[in-house]
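Usage

Read records sequentially. Each one opens with the input sequence:
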Amino acid sequence: MLKRYHLTILLGLLLFATDAFAQAQDSIRFGVNIRRLRQTGEIQANDTLYALIFTGAGGRYSQPGDSTRIGVVSANANDTVYIGPRRALGAANIGRITYKFTYRNLAAGRALTFEPGDDREVNFRNPNAAENIDTIRYWNNDASQGFPRRTRRVIFQADMSDLLGAGFGAGDTIGVTGPFRGWTGSPPSLRRIGLTTTFTDTISITAEENSTIPWKFKAYSSTANRFTNGGWEIGPDRPLNFGTGTADLVATPTPIKPIIAIRVSRNFNVRVILDTRNRRTLGGRSIDSLRTAGALTGTLNGLRYGLYIAGEGIFGAWPNWDDTTLLRNTDPPPAGQSIPSTQRFIFLRPSPTEPAGVFEATIPATSIAFGPFKFAIFYNGIFADPRPSNGRLDNEGIVGADYLTTFPSTIAAGSTATVRAVFGGGNSLLNTPERDLTAPVAREFRLEQNYPNPFNPSTTIRFSIPTTENVQLDVFDVLGRKVATILNQRLTAGTYTVQFNASQLSSGMYFYRINAGNFRQTMKMMLVK
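and closes with the structure output:
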């Protein structure tokens, strides 16, 4: 009997010790004030708020167990503060955690939206005892009242001269899409103004004053595979500065040409002339230096060093940018012969009529519209250099700004049209920064957080410079490899926005860095596909 009594006491002590050990761990309770999100309309009823714990150096978001559910957003616009349950962290010596607030509505198919800016940090100061911490913060530390939301009619105008000349007609439709239309792939059709080549649409949009709204032209057809790129405009989203007031807003005072290509029968040849003078690869290699050092002549295991052209607009599909074996048999076929279905690159030879550093090739007639396309460079030493994130041969330096050329239907059959391009140029018009004339006078250098963030595939970057400077804006992956140069030009003092399209990059964390005079700043952004 005495032994049973002692055994009962021992079991009780063990249970007490086990329970005490389970409770002796740090814990945290997250809370977030979403007033700003309510004001801008970015968050909606039934979205779920979370705190995602970043596990420190070498960690990453969304690991199992790292998500703490804070609460579901109500339909009451006055409900702005949400506090979640207390969460035990598993030990009493956590030291430090970093986290971000997020929200999403999985049932409605809404993507996970991360809080912009740097990771948040919580420090546990006593390594020998459990601590219970409450952390309640404003979303993005933004306690401002923000700008009022307005509804105004926005007028979009398109110059359809190129597309009409290329055969756009019966069964083809083009419209304007964006977040105000849920990025639909079948937007209402633009209306033609009389017998002109100008098409227009007027859309009622509700948004916050002075906000920047992304949009694009989108084409679709009753004929399958009528357009390249699925009918989406090639290049980054176009920005719309919503401004203030409720008066009608003309988004495109001068009608602009949609960057869209039709898959039409092209019965003429195209001579492509590529200028590489004073240009660099994505990794920063000077092409002039490579050429003068002989790194663009000769072969490696039968693969020719030099310049190549590739793209959906020439071959019907993009290449595997890591498969260097595709560089075999890359001469253009003779006039009158079609490009082999397995070919993904065409070799560009030094131009016999242009200065050194200019290359060319003549591409025969094909049933594929001429665009989108890009260039690649294969040089002696390429495998010793860092691999670009999208593949060894995707090294031109422009992500998401592919080339596109639309030819008129009046070009004579059997003739040769000429297209001139600059290495790393892409559709340079789409990478021209837009100056914000409504912003206050820039009094300091400033690089702002991109928006939206996370993004897929396009985002907007805003910066200010108080003096005229040479401005370069580059994007790097987590290994420090440059994956894109968004901007490299001289700008006068002011506040600017520029678009970045990462459609050819994989999901993950990236860093964008500005160099303007002696000013340098780096920020991070998240691509979620």
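Summary fields computed downstream for this record:
- The radius of gyration is 28 Å.
- The first strand starts at residue 27 and ends at 33.
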